[in-house]
Amino acid sequence: MKAKSYILLAVFALFSTTSVMAGGPGDSPLATRAKTMTQQIAAKTHLNEGQYLKVKQLNLQMLTAVETLKKQRNMDTEAVDKQMAEIQDHYEWDLAAILWPRQMVAYREAKASMTAVNLR
User: Fold this and answer.
1) What's phi and psi for 99, nearest 5 deg?
2) Is 33 exposed, middle or buried (0-12, 13-18, 19+ CB in 10 A)?
3) Over the stretch 35-78, which tens digit does the pLDDT of each residue have?
4) Would you call 34 exposed, middle or buried from its count of C-beta atoms within 10 A (0-12, 13-18, 19+)?
């Protein structure tokens, strides 16, 4: 479970590494990160406008859940790992409902290649 949690964090960190300037005036840091992640996913999967908006909202929900989890200091490592795995599973499930099968394949390939590079 720990490895899955760290992989999730690595993937989201990679999708979030672009300049913070991607957000507009008044955007929260989470909204800016969600927008950046969505732009990177869109570049890999060729989202249409409707998908883009749904993925952006999903990214914001996921980032908010991760931030909320980080703030819960009274949880032990195993509980955090379990919650992080649930967040990841929920995210992947919802993303699969938004993307077409070929887009999901492109997303998984991009995620796998970025995760492999980042773990070194």
Assistant:
1) -85, 150
2) buried
3) 999 999 999 999 999 999 999 999 999 999 999 999 988 888 89
4) buried
In the prediction, which pLDDT does 4 show? 57
What is the average per-residue pLDDT within 25-41? Answer: 90
pTM for the predicted model, two decimal places:
0.76
Q: Residue 21 burial (CB < 10 Å; 0-12/13-18/19+)?
A: exposed
* Cβ–Cβ under 8 Å, residues 53 and 65: no
Taking the C-alpha atoms of residue 71 and residue 36, their distance in angstroms, rounded to an integer, is 23
**Can you give the residue ranges of every domain in the chain?**
2-16+27-118
What is the per-residue pLDDT across 86-98, written as a single tens digit (0 to 9) for each? Answer: 999 999 999 999 9
**What DSSP assignment string belongs to 56-96?**
HHHHHHHHHHHHHHHH-TTS-HHHHHHHHHHHHHHHHHHHH
Quote the CA–CA distance of 39 and 18 in Å, as a whole number. Answer: 10
